[in-house]
TrEMBL record:
Active site: Y106, D147 (proton donor/acceptor), H248 (proton acceptor)
Marked site (Interaction with DNA substrate) residue numbers: H248
Site annotation Transition state stabilizer: residues: N149
Protein name: Exodeoxyribonuclease III
Site positions for Important for catalytic activity: D218
PROSITE patterns on file: AP_NUCLEASE_F1_3 (PS00728), AP_NUCLEASE_F1_4 (PS51435)
Cofactor names: Mn(2+); Mg(2+)
Binding site for Mg(2+): N7, E34, D147, N149, D247, H248
Length: 256
């Protein structure tokens, strides 16, 4: 089984790229973020023609998350992160696909910080931590994946110097991500490449792709039950170098 997560940065604009990547890599489950699309605008028909069912939580202009399943429809479990009934931002969806519980999450960016957006980021992270603990207690195979908008350590960025004031590198979200790992989640990319630099995002500005000035902010976290079946993980970084790309590359993991 192969699963993947990708911040697509506008699903309608990147649809040709998405379809080409699906055909080339054939993942069984895909988490998409930053759709910038309502449910009605989401290209279900094109994806169905490519062999993928979809579960969408869309939102006009910004945000939006989706899950794709090869040859089937994802079985919905949740379409929002529990803990705040007033939160209307489309940032979380959870479904069963091929016997695995998978998520697509788009954690708030949090900039500028300090400020209300950073406070919202931390509150959202607290809700995720609480829900993640419940998922672990279920003992089901779970893949917690998406754009976490956090660089876990300085080893996950080309150089922290020009990012020191950015919300992605602040101590609080880093501590929250570490808290998730302490619960028992396994960082799939780091388990595969414990020491090598691995990036998933390259900003459009300042020739950062050309200089490989990247960050690792897209993650796949595995529950203990799923870790037993884990084989490998990686980044399809060549997709970032194609015409009109997202600023993120797809992250994938495979299982027995």
């Amino acid at each position: 089984m192969k699963i993947a997560t990708w911040n697509i940065n506008n699903v309608r604009t990147r649809l040709p790229l998405l379809l080409a990547w699906l055909e080339a890599t054939q993942p069984d489950a895909v988490a998409l973020q930053e759709l910038k699309s309502t449910d009605g605008q989401f290209p279900r028909t094109e994806l169905e023609a490519a062999g993928y069912g979809s579960l969408v939580v869309g939102q006009k202009t910004w945000n939006g998350v989706a899950l794709l399943a090869k040859g089937a429809d994802p079985i919905p479990v949740r379409t929002s992160l529990p803990g705040d009934a007033k939160d209307t931002q489309a940032r979380y969806v959870e479904a069963a696909i091929n016997g695995v519980l998978v998520t697509s999450l788009y954690l708030p960016n949090g900039n500028p910080c300090p400020g209300p957006k950073f406070d919202y980021k931390l509150a959202w992270f607290d809700r995720l931590i609480a829900h993640a603990a419940e998922l672990l207690r279920s003992n089901h195979p779970v893949a917690l994946m998406g754009d976490f908008n956090v660089v876990p350590t300085d080893a996950d960025i080309y150089s922290p110097r020009s990012w020191l004031d950015n919300a992605l590198l602040q101590p609080e979200p880093r501590a929250a991500f570490a808290h998730l790992l302490q619960q028992g989640w396994v960082d799939a990319l780091r388990a595969t490449s414990p020491k090598d630099p691995v990036y998933t995002f390259w900003d459009y500005r300042r020739q950062r792709w050309q200089r490989n000035a990247g960050l690792r902010i897209d993650h796949i976290l595995l529950s203990k039950a799923l870790k037993k079946r884990f084989v490998a993980a990686g980044v399809d970084r060549e997709v970032r170098g194609m015409d009109d790309p997202s600023d993120h590359a797809p992250v994938w993991a495979t299982f027995k």
